[in-house]
Amino acid sequence: MDADNNLYRWVEGIQVFTFQGDGVATESSVAVYEGDVRLSRKVYSLTFCMRFKIFFLQQRGTIFFLQETAKDRFWMLRGEVWVDKVRVTISHTWHFMPLDIQLWAFRWYHLCFTYNHTSFLIQTFLDGKVVQHAYYDVGQPVFGDYIGVGNGQAITESYSGVITQVNVWDKVLSDEDILSIAQCRADPQGNFVSWEAGWTLYNATAEDVPLARLCQEEQERIYFWFPDTTDAVAQYVCEALGTHLPIVTSLEETLYLYELVKTMWPDSDHCPVYYWSSLNDKEEEDVWVHSYNTSLIDTISFWAPNEPNGGRYENCVAINYFGTIDDDCAWKRCALCTFTEPQRFSFFGTCEPELRNVYFVAYQEEYGGLLFKSYGAYHIEKRNGTWVYFDTVKDQDIATMEPFDPDFPMGRRWWKLEREVCGQENPGRRLMLLTPCLSHHFTCDDGTCILHHYRCDLKYDCRDRSDEMECELISFPQDYHQHLPPRVPGKENSKLPVTIKFTIKSIDVQTVKMSMKLSYELEMIWFDNRLNYLNLKTNDSLNNPRLDAMMKLWSPLVKLLNTDTIDQSLLAEDANTVVKRLAKSLGRDEGAAAEVDIYSGKENPLSVSRKYSTVYACQFDLTLYPFDSQHCDIHLQIVSGQVSFLDVHPNSSVKYLGSDVLNEYQISELRVLLEEGYDSGETRVRIPMTRLYGNSILTIYIPSLILMIISYLTLFFRTAIFDVRVMVALTALLVLATLFAQVRPL
């Protein structure tokens, strides 16, 4: 039966190989292929698949390699994994494929590479989905006469973990076929390399596993036991390990825990009486809530007979042989932490360039103890009562933890350096963080986790309130100078574009005084490539630097050229400064003892705004009064020192929020003027106005006309009432004189 007909062949069990289960690197751990492999068999297009589970990583983990032994060509076909990337080698051409996710230890992954020699397309599939692709003309076929799995001819390339279903086809499988294999719906065998063709194992073990089980992560529980702890310490330990204290919902669950500890630690004291639970009623009597979420009220716990009965004197909860009881929080009981899979811990503040030395897994190899092993070469272990950060390859202590209560390394701790870390020489002390929190979380000082965007959001989310501490937003370089504007390296003669935004709230035109009083907000936006920003929020209103940091910033000097007050500094205590998040993070700060995302000042601008109330001088031409149109300008220039290296950005704008109709004028569309004749950094904001002549006609011309008519009508008065005639004429002249006096300044 050919390979195509076998593509969807179902099987009962799959052979699984385990290499270096203890994590000790060796060159002799390998599985050698016993199938048909000859130099005459050449592959042009191919599909290369494997399923694996990492335990530990050396510099990299080599899952598969094809070699031409006569010429020592080890790189004919090879698949290698790191934490954050994979690499496929095809006929001595190397292709790194970054992953959007990071690989976890002790989890199954299915990985495939395809290469089409006609289109030159190389694709990477992780768990059945395309995650990366590239185009490259390999230029020659794949061939060889030796195939190995689980090693790469060097101890730094050896593999620690489980491998199965390694197959190579001499064609490109469809996306649907690859997804079917990844989801364990089929187990087709490759027609160039077949997993079922046979392997000879050297320092490796094999077992048969049902196909479906490879896609179902094992839910075997992991238990850590800690005797003689108070409730507060028990809550901390389990939550800082990434889980919670248990609750029991039946008597059977209670009895199971008591039998379990006897089986796991037969020589211990078995935590014989009580285990702490995650419940308490500290906030409201007889309302039992979970310590990690006080809004979650318990309704399912199995209480022992006549419990709870301690009233306000017993506000914590323990589990004894008969079920759940309320208990005194100060008593020392046993803490039991339960996991469904090994947790991944991150050790921050070490500046480790390799992620395999950043990520750790917790083990309990002795009753009440803890040991943290990295994916790579480092351990965190307790030695002679002191926690030690240890390099197992160099057999060298890196740092020792300063005494802390409770005596566990999870959370933010001070360490005494035994060798250089992040460029910091020993002896010295350094703050570092061991955390189970995921990448989108922030770790509180006590090791518990909150969502990352809750940090520095002006409200407390951590129980120890550490999320609102150390909220620095701006990272200044050592050579930063406030009096120097940002300059682009290599383009020192270029000018910094500054975007100006005017928001005018009210306009008061004084025609007689030839002036205009404005109430407005002036905002300037620019990029400062010298700066980095930390943990920017999507909500810009939360990206306000502290006052002391704001006053260290460079900002343009504003020259208001048609006012009495010419120079205005934009930065002041009443200014509003924000950083606008426009670009993605550059990554995490490897030297920070926290989850600190770094954003570039080159891609995320600074915005400084300030409110003003200013009187501007205007030049009105009243020749056509009252049928005239006028304009008044805000004439300004932005400079830096005596010489201006600044330009006004074309995206500058003005917005008017008030009424378009004033007492005398109708406001037209406002605009920002940028003209060639202007000096560097100079601009005008033009406010055009059309006079409302109806008001002048009603208040000046019509009254004058009426008075003139009245004066003229006095000529028709009888001479007998000459005195009345004179009185009316004089009154009309007096009123006209008054109107003239009012209009004369115009």
**Major beta-sheet overview:** 8 strands, antiparallel, barrel
Average pLDDT number: 89
CATH architecture of the largest domain: Sandwich
Strand order of the largest sheet: 22-23-24-25-26-27-28-29
| Number of E-type strands | 47
Instruction: Name the CATH class of the largest domain.
Output: Mainly Beta
Strand content is 35-45%
Write the CATH fold name of the largest domain.
Answer: Jelly Rolls
What is the CA–CA distance across the termini? 105 Å
Main location: membrane
Subcellular location: Membrane
Pfam families: Laminin_G_3 (PF13385), Ldl_recept_a (PF00057), Lectin_C (PF00059), Neur_chan_LBD (PF02931)
InterPro entries: C-type_lectin-like, C-type_lectin-like/link_sf, ConA-like_dom_sf, CTDL_fold, LDL_receptor-like_sf, LDLR_class-A_CS, LDrepeatLR_classA_rpt, Neur_chan_lig-bd
